[in-house]
Amino acid sequence: MENAGRVGLLGATGAIGASIAAALRAAGRPWRAIGRSRKALETAFGNDPLAEIATWNPEDANSVAAAATGLQTAVYLVGVPYNRFELHPRLMETTLAGLAAAGVERLILVGTVYPYGRVQTMPVTEAHPREPHTFKGRMRLAQENLVLDAHGRNGLSTLVLRLPDFYGPRVTNSFLDGVFTGAARGTRAQMIGPIDVPHEYVFVPDVGPVIETLAHTEGAFGRVLHLAGAGTITQREVATQAYALTGREPKLMVAGKTTLRVLGLFNPILREVVEMHYLQTDPVVLDDSALRALIGPVRKTPYEDGIRLAFEAARSAVPASENAVA
User: Which pTM value belongs to this model?
Assistant: First the structure.
């Protein structure tokens, strides 16, 4: 079949979608970028000769099926507003119905640590209890369960790949973005504290090659896998390294949980961050030995290199008129 082996990225225009697209391009694999906005898709991927572009409405199973027809593997990257997490299981139900109608063989959900709730043992393996105490965690758990329960039905094999927090060049929806923006502009970095707790971050460009490999690894499906970061680091250490690239000491503005509660009175997104603040004080550190046993060594960019690359991208994005840091 002409499209045998084709991968489709559902919700392709985010940072992780760009990372997977780069890995597919490097591997010479034809793929399909799927999203709501054709303009956004063409801007991001229109110059990729291996990419097809298709639009969809993830709330309509027929639209999902039309966009997914001819795919072997679908990678689910759909984000929702931080204050609309009830959409996660709802959209997954619709997506699964559409993928079944389209005859898609494999589905990879890129997930989070939210379903675990508070950590009971460290580092966290895939066998850790999933006992979320937050609404967002329960919605992500419901989404995961739909994916895992769909394995073996309608000819579909499924995989959940959980990631920790992430960072990288032009990754704006990261807790660390304020550090790179602040360093690049020579201004104060906006951060959420505490900032001296060892935390784990995955460098987004490292994610794509892993998913490209998993998409054609038979033993990967019917399970959950972790992709961990390159060890742990504190937010203060990230800031110190980023500002050192400018020859300056870090300038930080740190908001704790109490401040977030106050700011949340005026900002609905910050109001939602309060619920997940436990991850700042009691972070999840993942064990990905199962992934490495399956696919072999995994490239993990050292924090020093990742911080430099993220800073350089932030500096290049600063308009010259704003007197970017030299």
Answer: 0.94
Q: Are residues 45 and 190 in the same domain?
A: no
Query: Which stretches does DSSP call E strand in 49-198?
Result: 51-55, 73-76, 106-111, 157-162, 165-167, 189-192
C-alpha closest to that of 14 among 294, 128, 30, 36: 36
> Whose structure tokens read 């919700």?
11
Beta-bridge partners for 53:
33
- CA distances from residue 124 to 120, 247, 255, 287 in whole angstroms, order as listed: 8, 37, 27, 5
Bridge partners of 35, per DSSP, are 55
> Which residue from 146, 236, 124, 140 is spatially nearest to 191, judged by alpha carbons?
236
Residues 188-230: tens digit of each pLDDT: 998 999 999 999 999 999 999 999 999 999 899 999 999 999 9
> Minimal CA–CA distance to 288: which of 108, 164, 176?
164
Nearest to residue 220, comparing CAs of 109, 114, 103? Answer: 109
Q: Which residues of 263-296 are buried (b: 16+ CB within 10 A; e: fewer)?
A: ebeeeeebbbbebbbbbbeebbbbbbeebeeebe
DSSP 204: G
Q: Indicate whether 53 belongs to any domain.
A: yes
User: What 3-state class would DSSP assign to 252?
Assistant: strand
The token pair at 285 is 């550190």
Residue 241 and residue 178 share a domain: yes
Instruction: Give me the number of domains the chain comprises.
Output: 2
Asked whether residue 79 falls in the same domain as residue 117, the answer is: yes
3-state secondary structure of 237: helix
d(CA 77, CA 7): 13
